């Protein structure tokens, strides 16, 4: 392990993110399980990329077969992108009937920002603080915690995200109006500064902010504010999309609002690099006519075959229903956990959050110890939130009741042994 | 075909690029050949992504095997990225010993720009006009021919690219000094405007500008200007890299200069979405410490397996030597073409350019007719240059003498039948 870390440092340089104080060397994956070089197995409760489970044979076969037949760019005609895209956009309402494919969620969000700019002719963008929408220059400017070289760009404003521990406006009831008011103020500032307002980007479950508990309708006032100002609501579905919430295919359906643009990524190809932007035709036309966009790898037949196999398996194996049913079962089990530092336990389908706080103050250090302890017991978890104080669990979609029991029992053991 | 075009328009929106007035529907690829839905075959002389030839069985097998074993992110340790990266950086000199993986050349260039900004603490960037370095917001700002919403960003300056037909400074001899002088002027402007100077990005063969004929040493004065000003030379090797030039593995080796950062893309995975940035350790550290960069799909074991197989095949099949030998043979054949509008015929390994001009004025329309006529005769070509007046030919690396003869004979027939 130390040999691999030394090789990484020599080849990749400093500050390359790894998980865990003593990172694991994963060599094999199958379903919900990952295996390290010593043959130890880990229950993967973190990785939402391997949506169907690691190395799902249907996706592997689709990639292998199409790679052997044709893999080229979309400037030639091919049925693959059409068959896939038509099937994908059929899963959206609100006039979201057109698709632009990219290779990564970052690229998709980078396009979505320009769609808002193309439609409005303005540059101003708003995002929530402590969020993350990707790694390109333009997208990183939405969310970086370290100022970019040259300072934060003046056309980007950040608003506080909704928060379960410290709700905006001082209470859960006041939070929706407070969030909308902050967005309205940011729009006014952008307009006063001459940038104008193009769009608001958000994750419809605020996943990176720790998935605060929000009721349907939470964003209604905000969406109205954005639309009154002529801007677009850009909905980053990279984490909640493809049925993870169990109740719906897409996160915006749960909050019951109509986004103008939706972006998709991580789970879309079960690990194959494929992502997309879904938009209304008026928005797509504005973007396509304003920018001459082409992406060499995007929408190639192999990516479309992988992404089609993902839809096949979700539907044939009933994985959305599984996320709903087993997700509810798992949330029941997790909700029985007891510890003085647990401030909240919440879940939507196969997305769970356990928030740790000490007298109302987020306890990121404790959360970090739980993650390390879970790894030692063979369970992979992550953490999020403004203080990294929220356990983040996003298991693969075939996660079973037995898997859920193992997760809950392990967390119970860890919390019992871990003093506040 | 018209059915597919209608479906594309409905699904993808307007202004989505296709090749040809009547685009082909490609359904299968093998080696240097692409096959359409009617079983017609085309000699692919355009696509540098399928570097080893379409659907090379070694890459297909590598992708299939690794996809079945593990495909996850680089926050866990894995030997794949280390084995590949160590082998790749060993192919570079000039202290270029570290690697950052991305999924696309656009992402790689987007990172390279920020590397220059991290090292210098300045934001100013310079690129050649009429070039293309990718599709993210930041990278598209280098090269767009249509102004971005909100106007061209003031921290980006464009300088005229070297040109075979109308050399900078009025003559081939004066061109190198003139190019350097233009870069020096742009640096002064950036400094005067308060942005400071971070870096110059260029393709070392100026591929999108039509690969003007340039001698080794052409960039020496420019590199000196950039370094004297404290900036970095960012070398976009997405097109010339991986041995295409026959004489060298990398384009900068042919012009014999030392870039500070190199970006790689298209051919790297023979179609699998994988790309990279190669940099000196001091530069990588400055970037890694200034930005918290992570890319979900980049450097996953499948991408590394595909990219490793590409290196295997290039080496085992002697493809660089093939590009050198067959490239020289093909250039001889092409050089025998005669037509009143041919202004120049040039080539480097498996990268050929035929420039069309009418009394010194670029003739893009004629070049377009040649591309269409070649398609009708079963050969796929592209075009580039400030007036799209330069035939661009980048065949797969196993291109044979017989393939070269077919290309030259077909072009000869076309040109004989096409009045000036």
Automatic annotation (TrEMBL), chains A, B:
Matching entries from InterPro entries are given as: Aminotrans_3, Aminotrans_3_PPA_site, PyrdxlP-dep_Trfase, PyrdxlP-dep_Trfase_major, PyrdxlP-dep_Trfase_small
* Keywords, in A-Z order: Aminotransferase, Pyridoxal phosphate, Transferase
**Family statement:** Belongs to the class-III pyridoxal-phosphate-dependent aminotransferase family.
- Species annotation: Rhodobacter maris
UniProt lineage: Bacteria, Pseudomonadati, Pseudomonadota, Alphaproteobacteria, Rhodobacterales
Q: Which GO terms describe its molecular function?
A: pyridoxal phosphate binding; transaminase activity
KW Transferase (keyword) present = yes
**Cofactor(s) for this protein?**
pyridoxal 5'-phosphate
| Keyword 4Fe-4S assigned | no
SUPFAM superfamilies according to UniProt: PLP-dependent transferases
User: Which Pfam family, an example, fits this chain?
Assistant: Aminotran_3
Please report the name of this protein according to its UniProt entry. 4-aminobutyrate aminotransferase-like enzyme
């Amino acid at each position: 392990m130390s040999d691999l870390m030394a090789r990484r440092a020599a080849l990749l340089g400093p500050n390359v993110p790894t998980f865990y104080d003593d990172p694991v060397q994963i060599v094999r994956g199958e379903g919900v399980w990952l295996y390290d070089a010593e043959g130890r197995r880990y229950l993967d409760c973190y990785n939402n990329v391997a949506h169907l489970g690691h190395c799902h044979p249907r996706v592997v076969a689709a990639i292998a077969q199409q790679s052997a037949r044709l893999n080229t760019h979309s400037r030639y005609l091919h049925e693959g992108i059409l068959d896939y895209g038509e099937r994908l956009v059929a899963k959206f309402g609100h006039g979201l009937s057109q698709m632009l494919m990219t290779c990564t969620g970052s690229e998709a969000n980078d396009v979505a920002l320009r769609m808002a700019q193309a439609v409005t002719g303005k540059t101003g963008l708003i995002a929530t603080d402590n969020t993350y929408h990707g790694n390109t220059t333009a997208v990183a400017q939405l969310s970086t915690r370290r100022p970019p070289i040259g300072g934060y760009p003046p056309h980007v404003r950040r608003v506080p995200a909704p928060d379960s521990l410290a709700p905006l406006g001082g209470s859960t009831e006041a939070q929706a109006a407070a969030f909308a008011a902050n967005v309205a103020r940011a729009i006014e500032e952008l307009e006063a500064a001459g940038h104008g307002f193009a769009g608001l980007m958000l994750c419809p479950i605020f996943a990176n902010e720790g998935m605060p508990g929000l009721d349907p309708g939470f964003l209604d006032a905000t969406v109205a504010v954005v639309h009154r100002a002529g801007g677009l609501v850009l909905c980053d579905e990279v984490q909640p999309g493809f049925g993870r919430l169990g109740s719906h295919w897409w996160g915006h359906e749960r909050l019951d609002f109509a986004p103008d643009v939706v972006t998709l990524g991580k789970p879309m190809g079960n690990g194959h690099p494929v992502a997309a932007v879904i938009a209304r035709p008026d928005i797509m036309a504005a973007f396509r006519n304003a920018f001459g966009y082409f992406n060499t790898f995007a929408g190639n037949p192999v990516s479309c075959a992988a992404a089609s196999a993902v839809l096949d398996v979700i539907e044939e194996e009933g994985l959305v229903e599984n996320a709903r049913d087993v997700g509810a079962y798992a949330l029941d089990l997790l909700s029985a956990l007891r510890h003085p530092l647990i401030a909240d336990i919440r879940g939507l389908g196969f997305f769970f959050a356990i928030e740790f706080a000490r007298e109302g103050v987020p306890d990121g250090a404790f959360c970090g110890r739980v993650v390390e302890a879970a790894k030692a017991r063979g369970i992979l978890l992550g953490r999020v939130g403004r203080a990294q104080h929220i356990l983040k669990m996003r298991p693969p979609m075939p996660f079973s009741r037995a898997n859920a029991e193992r997760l809950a029992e392990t967390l119970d053991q860890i919390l019992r042994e871990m003093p506040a």
